[in-house]
Amino acid sequence: MSFQTSRRDFLKKASAASAGIASMPYIFTSQAQANFETPNERPVIGCIGTGSRWGAVGPAAMKFGDCAAVCDVDSNHAGQGKERVQKAQGSDKKVDVYEDYRKILERDDIDLVTIVTPDHWHTKIAIEAMKAGKDVYCEKPLTLTIDEGRQIIKALDETNAVFQVGTQQRTEMGQRFLQAIAIVKDGRIGKLKEVTCAIGGVGESGPIPAVEVPKGLNWEMWLGQAPLCDYRHKEGGRWGNSNCHYEFRWWYEYSGGKMTDWGAHHIDIAQWAIEEANEGARVATFEPVMASHPTPMKDGMPTLNDRYNVATKFNVKTGFNNGIVMHIRNEANDLGFDNGIMFEGTEGKLFVNRGKISGQAVEDLKDNPLPEDAIEKLYGGKPTSHMQNFMECVKSRELPISDVYSHHRAMTTCHLANITIRLDRQLNWDAENEQIVGDEQANSMQSREQRKGYEINA
Fold first, then answer.
1. Contact at 8 Å (CB) between 249 and 52?
2. Please, what is the angle between helix 75-89 and helix 54-62, to 10°?
3. Which residues contact 450 (CB under 8 A, 6 or more apart)?
4. Domains of the chain, with CATH numbers?
């Protein structure tokens, strides 16, 4: 039986149970490892976006499936993507190249897509992919606004697609983050009181001149829902200073700066731990302790359009409904650490980042280890690589480890933190109704105007 046929049969059987699956976070992987060796067991992949980050995502996906097509609005990236696919799969296998992602979504032979585009394109492509019957692996941060998260969830619930977000700290990095969450959940630092996330800042670019659009780049389509503007670039650093490709992260028009770039990792882990240790915990207040932008802001919007405009430095105090406080900072050198998460409880502290996990509770594990199944219970099975988890869930139709529902909650925190520093005032958040209380202007920033022809149709 072909993969495509078996997948359709499973979708029919799974549709009635979809609501139940959606309500069971982190319970998803089968104990048996899925087999992806024979052609009929390997899904057919379409890769949308083949820039720098796809260099990790694409090859990971091709360990489990076969790439039939690549797509990028930059023909240079698309050509490099095709070469990489042929190198991995063999030059005798046909790989189609498109500029328009819709060509991939139109193909019945493609089972799933990887979306590795700038942030402002994620939601539109993901929704259209799900409606076209594709499963989705999309890089973080998944959304540009809070409203986009709601739109993706609506489409996900309607289509029963399998959707993995690329927040690899949930699976990889030596499982340090899973261990940290398990330690907090088991009460090893006492009752959790405070969390600090240091997620890094952004340097200033200074004025960036408008220049001719590089050959091969469809700049108008790259902009998508964002307003039409000049292409800007100047030499310097690893990537140069630009409003395109890697540097799009430092413009509010296309992303959310470090708040969403690294917040999608550290705030996600911190919030997961808070929710595991405190059932029903939800963010409630946002206070802008400090923020510095490289351009003056008016009504939450940058007033200069020729330079990076996201916050270079920031400190946001976030309160939860159960009294826990989370600090979101660009750095925490004054507290003795940088880039990582510090958990503080009534009986100790615990620090974790991609390089280490430390604290008395960690040292105590030598004599008093966590329960044998603590990590597997937290993870929902035996931890695997992020892509393998996605591919196994594509077969089982279960919820991946980085599911849209939990990611939406984490990204809501990131987006609200950005809104509070852009407006420079405290916000009160009604998590149940997903509304900012008593602030019409702040509520309006849950969504953004979309350029005609590139609207998201949820």
1. no
2. 30
3. 225, 456
4. 3-171+386-403 (3.40.50.720), 174-204+236-378+406-444 (3.30.360.10)
Q: Between β-strands 66-71 and 44-48, what pairing exists: parallel, antiparallel or unpaired? A: parallel
Q: Are 59 and 88 a contacting pair, CB within 8 Å?
A: yes
- For Cα atoms 130, 410, 298, give the angle at the middle one, nearest 5 degrees: 100
Could you give the 3-state DSSP secondary structure of residue 208? Answer: coil
Distance CA 269, CA 275 (A): 10
Q: Please, what is the angle between helix 176-185 and helix 263-277, to 10°?
A: 30
pLDDT tens-digit readout, 297-309: 999 999 999 999 9
Cα–Cα distance for residue pair 326/409, rounded to 1 Å:
14
For 412, left (φ over 0), alpha (ψ -120 to 50), or beta? alpha
CA–CA distance, 359 with 413 (Å, rounded to integer): 27
Helix ranges (H only) for 257-371 are: 258-261, 263-277, 360-363
The answer to whether residues 191 and 167 touch, using CB atoms and an 8 Å cutoff, is no
- Name the residue among 424, 425, 416 with its Cα closest to residue 445: 416
At 330-380, the pLDDT tens digits run 999 999 998 999 999 999 999 999 999 999 999 999 999 999 999 999 999
Residue linked to tokens 């700290």: 169
pLDDT for the residue 33: 41
In angstroms, the CA 135 to CA 118 distance is 19
pLDDT tens-digit map of 263-307: 999 999 999 999 999 999 999 999 999 999 999 999 999 999 999
The helix (run of H) or strand (run of E) holding residue 291 is strand 283-292
